[in-house]
Amino acid sequence: MSVERADELDVPRGSAAFVAVDLGATSGRVILGVVENPAPGTDLPDGGGAPRVHLVETARFTNGPVALPVSAPAGEPGPGDTGTALHWDVLHLWRGVLDGVRAAGLLARRHGLEVRGVGVDSWAVDYGLLDATGALLGNPRHYRDPRTTGVPDAVYARVDAATHYAVNGLQTLPFNTEFQLVAGADDATWAAAAELLLVPDLMTYWLTGRRVAEVTNASTTGLLDTRSRTWSDDLVARLGAEYPALGALRDRLPALVEPGTVVGHLLPAVQEATGLGAVPVVAVASHDTASAVVAVPASTPGATVAYVSCGTWSLVGLELDEPVLSEASRAANFTNELGLDGSVRYLRNVMGLWVLNECVREWTEAGDDVDLGALLAAAGDEPGGGCLVDVDGDEFLAPGSMPDRVRAAARRTGQEVPQTRPALVRAVLDSLAAAYARALTQACELSGARVDTLYLVGGGSQNELLCRLTAEATGLPVVAGPVEAAALGNVLVQARAGGAVSGGLPDLRRVVVASSTLRRVEPRAAGTLVG
Which residue is catalytic, options 288, 368, 381, 394? Predict the structure, then answer.
């Protein structure tokens, strides 16, 4: 699925429309999703007469880390302290959200559409703190902020990793919310905080005045019991016992809701700012990956769904009915995050297109006019296979100097060092495809699942070279698309809550297939991954 132009939107007047706010790590956008129900007897691409969704972007705005000066107490530099702290500019995002929702409302009125809902998805783990009046206590920290360096090891020395994993089932990443809270436990903002809201929940609060935590994003915090889909009172209490400043943490966690819950309606002030009426605001699968997985175009009944949600990050894994909490799974650093309708996203975070994007950004800022399409074409002509680096290495996490880091990693491991830009891009994409193959093979082995198709959704599905290299590395056919998977999944959850579509995940995915233009990339030697 691609986004349509506003002047090309051709749907029946009175069709149901939903506003998807999709906030990514490098940009935010607002998209109007329109559900077009087929006329009786219409034979749509899925062969079953499913509704189709049309997406029109109404706003796009920048996002990214903002560095601010910070100083540790004299003689007590914190782990990884660099003299700066990375934050998110959430007020800038909020302005973009309001502008986009207002533009979506204008577009809907112009086409005679009925706006039935608004929903917000975003990246995971980061949070804002509110005081007792509900006011935000400063801009949230960015997950790439260095303050969490070394924190996981310190926490596991007090509450061991196996105990954590048996409850939360999470991959150990230094920026998991739990570790951010420990790193900031002595901050003045935490002492003044009355409640914690993850980013999409913060936006939903500003839209409705109601404070809740949606479970798919809450499952990335490290504080949730992945089996019961509730906050883990035991784990939170143990954390508070070890870090007394976190003793009141449980009281600062809001009530949990499942995706599809109507949280409330637009506040009067928001109605005035956007020109909309008292439109319902729906808690969608608010972790953007959870929304993207809703929009995986799987069409084989009963088959395990294998996916790569590819953007700044790549999330590689399987959709399961139950979490995998074995010691082998913990040792392999796999995560169990929650999905729609009781599902579990069993996956591993892979660095994703961040490394490539940072290379392009650095070349552009140096004054070069980078034609990404031409660069990818040239990379495709490279022989490939001469350099594979660990794209998940810690050295690739922070922004800056990415080409030099790739070359240094190649040099350190005794591999051919890419000298040209096409060779370097090929090395990055070869390495990314290899990481996908490793993660998917391990996921199948650890879960006992068997898969014969890999679905690659999100912005990375437009990268034909990456899709081809992924098919070769995994030995599986790759179905590429939809590009706008997170926004489409966001709209579908709203549409089901608003009665515009019905059924379970398989039914929603029939709508995805009917709505999307998909590409299938076959490997030279096809196979099946068997757990």
Answer: 288
